[in-house]
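Good day; I would like, with your permission, to put a structural problem before you. What I wish to show you is a protein chain and, alongside it, a tokenised description of its three-dimensional fold. I would ask you to consider whether the tokens describe a fold that such a sequence might reasonably adopt. You will find the record immediately after this paragraph:
***
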Amino acid sequence: MIRPSPLLRRMAVAGGLGVGTTGVLAGVLLLGPLAASALLAMVFALVWPLAAMIRHVADDAPYQSALVVAAAAAAGVLCLPGLVRLLAWGAVGLAIALLVAGLFIVIDLVTPERRPRPSRRQRKLERASEAELQDEEQLIASLKCPLSIEELCGVWTETATTLAQGAGPRDRQAVAEVRRICLDEFERRNPDGFNRWLEAGAPANPSRYLLPIPGE
């Protein structure tokens, strides 16, 4: 199935808003300002608490604000009798609706497109990712401090366990940086033991090659 382009969808939404606005105005003329205001207030008061409750309990709410949903619902209820009134006007009513829809499309096209606001679930994931990144940066920063070679060997063994347990792409990137620092320190502090460890195939526990043997 062929999906419409983003530009076409944007124009359709703008045109629909234009027709809806025309229907709302026609509804006000049909019912009168007082009755139209009472209808808007009643629908708004009914929908707003329900929309707020749904947004509170839903992790990924499909709308940005309960106020927007309530206002849209109230306008939609008022729009229906207005559209009927426009259809009763015949060609004149249709021309007015198309004219306002075209005006909304032009305004939308000349207005810069806003980036969509991330959902509540996406914001939670972003905050969790930022917290994990800070923890990883703190670990990497601690490795740049003068840790003992015994502590570095322990870190190397822990990273080997992490890789063996199937770390994700983000964890693998952090582990790669940690291991790079460990390798630099191994080679700088004990080049002979470092070479022996590499010749042995770089086993998961490098301490037997890099740490001094008791009694020597």
About this structure: The mean pLDDT is 77. The chain has two domains: 6-110, 128-210. Residues 6-110 form one domain.
